[in-house]
Amino acid sequence: MNIDLIPYLPELISVSIIAIFMAISPGADFVMVTRNSVFYSRKAGLYSALGVSLAIWIHVAYSIAGLAIIISNSIVLFSIIKYLGAAYLIYIGWKTLQSKSNVDMERQLDSEGLSNVAAFKIGFITNALNPKTTIFFLSIFTQVVNPQTPVWLQVVYGAIISLSHLLWFCSVSIFLSQPVLLKKFHTYQNAIEKVVGSLLIGFGLKVAMTSND
Asked: Which has the higher per-residue pLDDT, 51 or 194?
């Protein structure tokens, strides 16, 4: 069976470009991956990046199923996602602010402070409970993706978005966990912890004020 992709090429290009800008735009995912890469280890950052990229598939699934509109239009469902996400970001931000800054950076490189599963869960939950991501997918699958687009191609779009996030955040983690940079971070670790913690709390408050209009 021959599949003609030409009619969907503009759509594919649009989704790909949007996916890249979505991944690199500063947000809670970026701060969380940065936090785990700098304060724990490269491995922790990479597992967080994996968690973010796999959480994307939750948004892809309900968008393809047509549930994005229902979630967006339901005050109760949207509020549950919104406040859970906000509470989680504020909680992690508060923990970061309260963390002790005199931890040996060499010990952090051994990833003793955060297990792979914990790092993965942090990335996954941060993205999955972000209502802004829900709104983003709603706009893509209602304004960019044609309702007549085959489901398998919509899954490909989801893979592009997920892969874009994985590649970007893995790159961020690898870059920020360079030994030379970690030594610099260690010098200003206390200040960095305060900034990162404050940013996470700020994102949490921003998420709490997100409107589904």
From this structure: 51
Q: Pick from 33, 65, 67, 53: which is nearest to 159 by CA?
A: 53
The alpha carbon dihedral of 42, 48, 50, 53 has a sign of: negative
What the block records as the tokens of 12 is 């594919």
At residue 102, the pLDDT reads: 46
Runs of H (alpha helix) within 9-130: 9-24, 28-39, 42-64, 67-73, 75-98, 105-108, 116-128
pLDDT tens digits for 32-49? 999 999 989 899 999 999
Per residue in 145-185, pLDDT (tens digit) is 888 889 999 999 999 999 999 999 999 999 999 988 888 77
User: Taking each helix axis from N to C terminus, what angle separates 9-24 and 151-176, rounded to the nearest 10 degrees?
Assistant: 30
47 vs 27 pLDDT, higher one: 47
| Angular region, 71: left φ>0, alpha ψ -120 to 50, beta rest | alpha
Residue 44 tokens read as 């922790």
Helices (H), 149-188: 151-176, 179-187
Decide which of 76 and 109 is more confident: 76
Closest C-alpha to 200, from 61, 94, 55, 60: 94
